[in-house]
Amino acid sequence: MKILIINPNSDPAMTAAIQKTAETFAAGDFEVITEATPGAPPFIETYEDAARAAPGMADLVRLHECDCDAIVVACHCDPNLDLMKEITSKPVVGIGEASMKLATMLGHRFSVISVADRSIPNKEALVRAYHLEGSLASVRATNAGSGAWGAEAPYLEAARKALQEDMAEVIVLGCAGATGLDRALQAALHVPVLDGVICALIIASGLARYGVATSKARRYCPK
Amino acid sequence: MKILIINPNSDPAMTAAIQKTAETFAAGDFEVITEATPGAPPFIETYEDAARAAPGMADLVRLHECDCDAIVVACHCDPNLDLMKEITSKPVVGIGEASMKLATMLGHRFSVISVADRSIPNKEALVRAYHLEGSLASVRATNAGSGAWGAEAPYLEAARKALQEDMAEVIVLGCAGATGLDRALQAALHVPVLDGVICALIIASGLARYGVATSKARRYCPK
Amino acid sequence: MKILIINPNSDPAMTAAIQKTAETFAAGDFEVITEATPGAPPFIETYEDAARAAPGMADLVRLHECDCDAIVVACHCDPNLDLMKEITSKPVVGIGEASMKLATMLGHRFSVISVADRSIPNKEALVRAYHLEGSLASVRATNAGSGAWGAEAPYLEAARKALQEDMAEVIVLGCAGATGLDRALQAALHVPVLDGVICALIIASGLARYGVATSKARRYCPK
Amino acid sequence: MKILIINPNSDPAMTAAIQKTAETFAAGDFEVITEATPGAPPFIETYEDAARAAPGMADLVRLHECDCDAIVVACHCDPNLDLMKEITSKPVVGIGEASMKLATMLGHRFSVISVADRSIPNKEALVRAYHLEGSLASVRATNAGSGAWGAEAPYLEAARKALQEDMAEVIVLGCAGATGLDRALQAALHVPVLDGVICALIIASGLARYGVATSKARRYCPK
Amino acid sequence: MKILIINPNSDPAMTAAIQKTAETFAAGDFEVITEATPGAPPFIETYEDAARAAPGMADLVRLHECDCDAIVVACHCDPNLDLMKEITSKPVVGIGEASMKLATMLGHRFSVISVADRSIPNKEALVRAYHLEGSLASVRATNAGSGAWGAEAPYLEAARKALQEDMAEVIVLGCAGATGLDRALQAALHVPVLDGVICALIIASGLARYGVATSKARRYCPK
Amino acid sequence: MKILIINPNSDPAMTAAIQKTAETFAAGDFEVITEATPGAPPFIETYEDAARAAPGMADLVRLHECDCDAIVVACHCDPNLDLMKEITSKPVVGIGEASMKLATMLGHRFSVISVADRSIPNKEALVRAYHLEGSLASVRATNAGSGAWGAEAPYLEAARKALQEDMAEVIVLGCAGATGLDRALQAALHVPVLDGVICALIIASGLARYGVATSKARRYCPK
């Protein structure tokens, strides 16, 4: 089994971090290959960033879909996920969708720890699109700056507030760039801390093993 | 006052029909200019169609924003509307959003008459994004084929069923291509029948006159 | 075009303030006439105030409907709005409904700034009746007293808290008496600040120009 | 204990029918007195009917509140119920609210059987105001005409459809005029069939015995 | 009339306190008998506590249903209430359901004062199961320890915060053990403070008098 | 890795069918062991059936938790799932929860095909508890009788109606007894047809591999 992981941005360091997390989780039982998106901006923050990533993401799907079994979109705002589900017959899993839906199976409510205040409304809109408002404790931002997406301390502080003030029981890392922080945070917080890349690999590898993919009945039917 | 109407597809006939409706409504009190989107497909049906329209739509905004007072996006699925709201300081109004929100002011529930069954889930997702589920009676499709987007009879039949079987009180035309059918349908049905282009012009011209535009607080703030 | 604005209370100062805002917005392009409600209390705070305003409001509608093109109800709690929509074939727009629904087109969430704590539950009930809970950031009260409905400072303070603490992106002035404060507040806050009177005029004049009015299918059908 | 039952309309026959049901249920354990509303129309169908009933209903409350222990509003659309709750310190119970909330304790979903199609949207709006959408199976109308509000057959037919087609498990009689039909319908349908007058008496007499009434914290605080 | 009150735990002191409250309310007009549950834990806090109480509760129902007219389940988390409704043809009322639904008839929003933080999510899940989220101001915990379930001061402090900070208008005592505190709290707080035992008796005695019980249409039909 | 599958009923044939499906999916990559529940009824239909299964299910968890890595509850009504999550530190996955949440990632709306009409309300209550109402197209019953839980034709007919009349895009098999039907149904229907046992194994094995389990913060914390 081979899983294609699309990093919707073009940052090589984040691509490498995602690949490292994925390889560690796969542990040789299945193949993972992470691709940065050609033509995409180095970080996906705005609607325009997402739109700019779309053509390269579609190209990656079409280039690789014949020799992969499932596709993961590895940006926590799930940019262009509907498009990805539409254009391929392989299962497609977003790390935002996978991590937040798994979170609902592990505790009463979850909080998402995002990078910046400005992303909170967009995350709330995503939560609504997935019908998850009722399971959301809060979206909190570290506001540590996009350059510091891998730093542990701001995530720890925001997560503690989510657990104590917002009644969260599960923490979701709200940026692919936070990949790798889950273990240390979980050890400190004593609740599940979910890395979206791993959550998406759980679902994607499971669907591929099962042999089911996106329904083409109506919503995701290409022309 | 001048309002730019972006037709997200590239079809000249639909562009002309939209312009005609807009000019008739404006009646010389404000200027309207409808532009087809360069590089877009001739009809927007799929997520890929919408993604393909995005670069040309952004180009149109940037080309015209200095000399227009408001922008209308004239496809009823409101493709790339969040992107449009983000990249300009001028007010931006989608014909889907405007027509469905005005419909809630005119009766208990509204039905949207769409072109094809396959678009129903997407319209439902849009309705949810706008928090309008509670005001929706139904989405019904004419299934008359995308080539027949200007024919009256299939709309009339679907609208009658919406009024009688789904308890709709207001009808929303769910395709920019249906522009111009509102008068005849309203005369036959005796309830408000809303053309999205006109609804969007009402809001867009009003906001321009008022001097307010999209909040740049967080969600629609460009980088 | 002529628009009748019903001030549901009987206060001449507030009536004059509403008329001034309306005239400024209309700028001679359409006629506006604001009428205080005979027999109504000087300020609408309670359910009993609203009930006491009903007969006079209905009288105003019947007196003026033949020579006006649309009707605006200019109290932000939209008293007797369903009744107004039922008894006339002209379009009827409440300043609460218009301002809150326009707010949803201008940003992720809006806050309403009301006069008194006691009005917060009633405003929440109105927000629910309009299916707007999902777009509401908060209702905050200035608690400056009903006599001080035109003072700017308490609105500014409450709005700042709404933007910073409640994640609002748009501010709605929750009392017709606050009419005229929008410009100064918007200049200070850098987000849209909506005056309900103007919002209702946008919709009412647009519907009148379009030639559509309340559906008489069922909910608003008079006997 | 004495309970005032306000019939919001002025029809003596319906007033007598309500009184009869109430007396039978009270069985001498508490006193009931049903008053028709002076100045109200003979049947409450429209928003205007409800507005016309308001002054007389308020007068009845003020006339009787000193010598009664609780007040029931006996029209299933609960006209002016917020006003009634506001103006008196005695507990006030609407037959719509009481019957629909008790119904949620007796089965998975309930259906309301109303008199006419035109009342369905208003009943839905009431259901929403009470946060009961999730427990509602359907609102069905007998369409037997307002003159035939006491006939059994149309209720039976509509209720059967609600049970079989809409998955209702409890039937709520949606008009005070249907009082007295509950026993026969329940015998035929083998599910609970709720008469609003009795449901309201259960709650009103219980609250009076308990000694609690409407909170005057904010929403229902008179000036 | 005779009402069986099942205390789902096995604590004799709490059983006696419940019986005392019930007898005082019944005032000799109907008979009440409170039974502790054989085999149940002394306090119901966890899902396992609830499961352990189920067999004894079912036994109590079967032992007493022939000679009682209605059954009350007197633990505010309503443990095994669906089971109770299923296995008997007598009306069954939970004190959680009864108190929270009555609260919605007495003010805009209610707060539940629970014993411990750990019970807040479970109470929220119960509130959701009853479709009451929209009427809930907050769940607050006294955190006074399960041994101190009858102490007044922590309830008073939590209730004051609920009224002032969460905009509650009605207080619901969230533990059967708090029975008897309602009068003193209501005198201090000047809003309705609801004891679940009394609320359930209001509904249970009313349903018994009316002669209606749980629908056996589908959800609560035994095999 | 070893996964314990608890069949909440005591039927050996269904236990064997579940084990067969699980073994086929695991394909030797992880160990699966399905245990029937001692003391449970042969089929779980009622709330009493579920209550009767609870002690045996808890015993199975405690007997096996030391030598298994995750636990699956293999009845589609997820009986006693909250209890299971509370009493063990191993991840616990219900086949109802897993299949319905995976379904939301594969299409716009899903339908559940259940065994009997009487189970529809209970399934709807489960869907609500999981916040999945917005993704549900319908619950349909085969009504083929509980003895015929493995027959294909009634599932096919109900699923076709769900796809055509209810706009479902994904089918969820609503009974563990239907295990093994997914392939044939999927081949006939051309949309994803989900077997809950496999869906739960995907999640359970993934969580075990990841090393995360139920949060013990509050809701699922044992005493």
Question: Please, could you describe this protein's structure?
Answer:
6 copies of one chain form a homohexamer. Chain A has 223 residues and is α/β, with parallel strands linked by helices. Chain A has 2 domains: 106 residues, Rossmann fold; 100 residues, Rossmann fold (3-Layer(aba) Sandwich). Helix content of chain A is 43%, strand content 16%. Chain A has 8 helices and 8 strands; from the N terminus they run βαβαβαβαβαβαβαβα. Chain A has a 4-stranded parallel beta sheet, sandwiched between helices. The radius of gyration of chain A is 16 Å and the shape is globular. The mean pLDDT of chain A is 96.
Q: What labels would you give this structure?
A:
homohexamer, Rossmann fold, 2 domains, 8 helices
Name the beta content range of chain A: 15-25%
Write out the strand line-up for the largest beta sheet of chain A, numbering strands in chain order. 2-1-3-4
CATH architecture of the largest domain in chain A: 3-Layer(aba) Sandwich
> Largest interface, with Cβ-Cβ < 8 Å?
A-F, 49 and 49 residues
**Helix share bin of chain A:** 40-55%
Q: What is the name of the CATH class of the largest domain in chain A?
A: Alpha Beta
Task: Kindly report the average pLDDT value of chain A.
Answer: 96
Q: Any idea what the radius of gyration of chain A is?
A: 16 Å
Poorly predicted tracts of residues of chain A: none
Order of helices and strands of chain A: EHEHEHEHEHEHEHEH
Global shape of chain A: globular
Total E-strand runs of chain A = 8
Which structural category do the helix and sheet elements of chain A fall into?
Answer: alpha/beta
